[in-house]
Design goal:
Layout lengths: L1 E3 L6 H11 L8 E5 L7 E5 L5 E5 L12 H11 L9 E5 L9 E5 L16 H18 L18 H16 L5 H9 L11 E3 L8 E3 L6 E4 L6 E3 L1 H9 L6 H4 L7 H4 L4 H12 L7 H25 L7 H5 L2 H14 L4
Antiparallel strand pairs: 1-2, 2-3, 3-4, 4-6, 5-6, 7-10, 8-9
Helix pairs in contact: 3-9, 4-10, 5-12, 6-10, 10-12
């Protein structure tokens, strides 16, 4: 979904930059903004040589280390030589004077994007195959040798989970708009229950169905988008954040909890985890429930950041206020799960 001719891009300056930095570019340039994203504004650019996509940092004051579109560009460029399907990236601009913030330009993939993981209007067989494809793609990502593709320095070595918990705790506290006791308790609980450190891999950081592009007619993933949270870290944490959909109800945040999975052709959480283990060669998923607590906590922190940006007027979507209100119930669900594990 786009809003034609309703955008804040200075097309004159952008067109000049694209002529200088993208081989074969031909104007004139027009743009439409994609709706729905909460983080980095994204635009479809139209020109004489066909469509492409621009993704930028939002304007205004931002939280530290957030909206890292330069990291998106770097990881997609590295993954273009692997089995992980990503759009081709054309050029990165770190000069704020061109359009007001850092941005990059990439290939436009002609395919389907689904926001609801229940995949309404599709038949059970197609749903089943699409979930198989999602699983195979994240497993392929976690099988990439990050050193071999030039990402040896893409993330800090060691203590990934500890650093992530500290990061999302800071992000939550920097965007707090009202006291949430469950989140305060989780900030204390999570560092005291860290699992053993896993072998590092490239992690996407936000691998959800709405960050994937499926083939226009076939049930397979042709592109993985939204890499701003990617780094080198614990692949099980990355997969758990993806599999969190089975723990969250549809009315809370695009989840699968409580629906007729068998009738829809969607695997159960246990079946989906088993398929991932088979793809990656894992024999088990130790500390799975801890990773689920962390995933819910992280989602609540992200939602709180959206709530703060909505108040500040820098959110990228008109739905940001409503989404931000969900931070509290998601945090409370995380704390309830943590308490069920004992040792609180």
């Amino acid at each position: 979904m786009t809003t034609a001719e309703q955008h804040d891009l200075p097309l004159g300056r952008l067109e000049g930059w694209m002529r200088d930095h993208i081989e074969g570019f031909r104007g004139p340039l027009a743009a439409e903004q994609f709706e729905g994203g909460q983080s980095n504004p994204t635009y479809k650019l139209l020109s004489g040589d066909g469509p492409c996509v621009l993704r930028r940092k939002p304007l205004g004051q931002l939280l530290p280390s957030a909206h890292a579109v330069d990291r998106e560009y770097r990881v997609m460029r590295a993954l273009s030589r692997t089995a992980v399907p990503v759009p081709e990236v054309y050029a990165l601009c770190e000069d704020d004077s061109v359009i007001g913030s850092v941005f990059y330009v990439m290939e436009f993939l002609d395919g389907r994007v689904f926001w609801d993981p229940r995949l309404p209007d599709l038949d059970p067989a197609e749903r089943h195959t699409m979930f198989q494809s999602m699983n195979a793609v994240i497993a392929a990502l976690h099988s990439v040798d990050h050193v071999a593709v030039g990402l040896a320095e893409f993330g800090r070595p060691g203590n990934y989970m500890g650093r992530q918990i500290a990061r999302w705790s800071r992000q939550y506290q920097a965007s707090e708009t009202e006291q949430q006791p469950a989140m305060d308790r989780l900030i204390d609980w999570l560092p005291r229950h860290l699992p053993p450190e896993a072998e590092p891999r490239i992690v996407h950081g936000d691998y959800r169905i709405d960050n994937l592009i499926f083939h226009p007619t076939g049930p397979r993933v042709i592109g993985v988008l939204d890499w701003e949270l990617s780094t080198i870290g614990d692949p099980l944490a990355d997969f758990a954040y993806h599999a969190m959909a089975w723990r969250v109800s549809p009315d809370l945040f695009r989840g699968l909890a409580g629906i007729d999975l068998a009738g829809l052709g969607i695997p159960t959480e246990e079946e989906y985890v088993a398929a991932y283990c088979a793809h990656t060669g894992r024999s088990h998923t130790a500390d799975w429930e801890f990773y689920m607590v962390y995933s819910l906590f992280r989602l609540a922190a992200i939602m709180q950041g959206i709530a703060k940006r909505a108040i500040d007027g820098t959110a990228a979507s008109s739905q940001a206020v409503e989404l931000g209100r969900l931070a509290r119930p998601v945090g409370e669900q995380a704390w309830t799960l943590a308490r069920s594990l004992g040792a609180c």
